Amino acid sequence: MRFHFIYRFYKLVFITVLLLGSILLNSCSRFTFNNQVLKLNLAYSEEQASLVKEIIKINEQDKRFRNINLIKVEQSKAIKLLKTNSIDAYLGTILDESSELYLSKNLIAKDGIVIIVNPRNPVKNINLDTLSRIFLKNVNNWKFLGLEDQPIIFINKNNTNEKRLFLESFFKKPLSQNSTNQFEVNNDSEAIDLVQQYEHSISYISFSSITNRVNTVHVDHIAPTQLNISSGAFPIYKPISIYESDKLLTQAKKRALIEDLLNYLWSADAIPVIKSAGFIPLSAAEIEVIKYESLPVTLGVSAPLSGPYAELGRAIVSGTKMAVLEANEKKLKNHKKIELIICDDKAEVSKGLDCANIFIKNKVLGVVGHLNSLISIETSKLYIDNNIIQISPGSSHPWLTETEEAKGKVFRTINIDENQAEKIASAISKLENQKKDNILVLHNGTIYGSHLATLIENFIFRYLGKDVIVQSKSFNINDSRYHLQLKTNVPDIIVFIGEYADAAQALVDLALDNKSDITFFGADGNFSNRFIDLAGLRAEGAYIIGCDLDQASASYKSFEKRYWELFRSGISSFSIYSYDASRILINAIQILNQDETGTDKSLGEIIGESKTDSYCGEISFNEKGDPKQSRLAVFKVENGKFVKTNL
């Protein structure tokens, strides 16, 4: 009896343990799946392998950088990998100056390129110009330097060696490949061996490879010492930096991983590590300057990136990214790196408020947003309370800037509704050979749409007189009543206020109902190449309001080309409005950071007094924060393109 009791007891315990183990395992499995560790992909090249080995040693000891994947790549491929966001960051030296311009760069160490000669060679100093001519084989005899008449034997590195590539970049010409009196070696050790062997030879090595087997040469009378290289006095030194890809601008968690690594490499603890790797640490003063300059200015951009207005939202985000990219390229005096927090407000007020709180938590200086007027109006209260500048590229309802509290804090780069309404009514009045007796204004039912529709009605009466019939109706593309309106109501002109995909669908519906002869006017939300793509041939002849672009100018064509290369998208009005908003904000921050000006003006005051050139014409603000200039034009779709009219 006792045996059976013990058996049943242990059986029950065994089953319980199995069940608990299963539950725990399942819970852990779910936790692991839902909380995947974010990894940062940091690439490096062969010449930085020694430093990477030191970082790996540290990681093995205390797992400090366990979330960083270290990937060895060829230096020549680093730029492409960064441009395509195939890697998050690169540890090394970028040799292409034009490519380096737009990359965010953090200097961490230096490597001197030291000139070496045979110990029996009496040369002590070579000026930089002569050195360049020796390496380029324009000077090939030591008598040019006042020494004996002997040919110079040039010990070069192979054509994939990073030090050779660096010198070619430094001298802005390929080093000589003439086989006469020249050897090519693979590394510093081989270079030292040959220089020691040949009395009349010359070569170059890293500072860390210096040995008493060869003599080092001063350049422009400056010795290749650690102090001179660290201070930048020695003219030939190679900067070792961590370069960041564009996508890190918007990935806060990965940025934090990079910052942890940088803070370590800039600390006193890293000095022996950097020396052990063969590089020269930065001075304390230099690190302080770099740290200050590396502190980013954080901006926010919010727009709908999902739902029916996603394309318009993406245009706003892309325009802002473009401005941030250009600002980070320029590296102006006192200009800090701009980081961007992107938030999807989903065209919903509650989500917009969530985005505003995210920006507040991250202490942004300014926000470019939102698209929808109601969201901008509601979020502006939070921005004002937290002293954050808001510049909306898409909210045209007058309420946004009308309150006393908004003055100097809230701005917009889009025209207010009244300007657009008058432009539409004026353009309609100027149409020749066009019936204007019956006009239907279709709007999307938002406060923006209904308010603009009312204003358009009023301005049409002002321009055309009270005899014209104007009807204003809200629409829903998926509502059968909307289709019935198009079938039963045959206006001469339709003015469409809504998103361009809906506008394209409206044109398709008109064509299906054999009403494609109705003249179509679209508000500025339709000024996008996507409208033409979606409507196809049915877009021909449509009039669309957009910002007053000079499409033929070389600067705009260059901007358009780069915009396409970056975002694979055409430019819309909202692209320009957000681009302008971001530039205005960034330029004001730049002025605010120029301490020597002694300005005591606030960021909002600087913006309020600013005048900014734009592809849509100059923009400045009135006392409310609205643009003084209308900056609007009427475009007509001809042969699949927007062509500016004189309307």
CATH homologous superfamily annotation of one domain: Periplasmic binding protein-like II
Helicity range: 40-55%
Strand content: 15-25%
The first-to-last residue Cα distance is: 104 Å
CATH class of one domain: Alpha Beta
The number of distinct helices, counting runs of at least 4 residues, comes to 22
pLDDT average, as an integer?
86
Major beta sheet, specifics?
10 strands, mixed
Describe the structure.
It is a single chain. This protein has 647 residues and is of the alpha/beta class. Among the domains are: 40-109 and 251-291, Periplasmic binding protein-like II (D-Maltodextrin-Binding Protein, domain 2), CATH 3.40.190; 110-237, D-Maltodextrin-Binding Protein, domain 2, CATH 3.40.190.10. It is built from 22 helices and 26 strands. Helix 13 (349-361) runs parallel beside helix 14. The longest helix is centred in the N-terminal third of the chain and has 33 residues, at 2-34. The protein is elongated.
Summarize this, please?
The chain has 647 residues and is an alpha/beta fold.
Secondary structure: elements and pairs:
Elements: H1 2-34, E1 40-44, H2 49-62, E2 68-72, H3 78-83, E3 89-92, H4 97-100, E4 104-117, E5 125-126, H5 128-135, E6 153-157, H6 162-171, E7 182-185, H7 188-197, E8 201-206, E9 215-216, E10 218-219, H8 226-231, E11 237-244, H9 252-265, H10 271-276, E12 280-281, H11 284-294, E13 297-303, H12 310-330, E14 338-344, H13 349-361, E15 366-368, H14 373-385, E16 389-392, E17 410-412, H15 417-430, E18 438-443, H16 447-464, E19 469-474, H17 480-488, E20 493-497, H18 500-512, E21 519-522, H19 529-535, E22 543-547, H20 554-567, H21 573-592, H22 603-608, E23 611-612, E24 619-620, E25 632-638, E26 641-644
Parallel strand pairs: 1-2, 1-3, 5-10, 6-7, 6-8, 13-14, 13-15, 15-16, 16-17, 18-19, 18-20, 20-21, 21-22
Antiparallel strand pairs: 3-11, 4-8, 4-9, 4-11, 4-12, 22-25, 23-24, 25-26
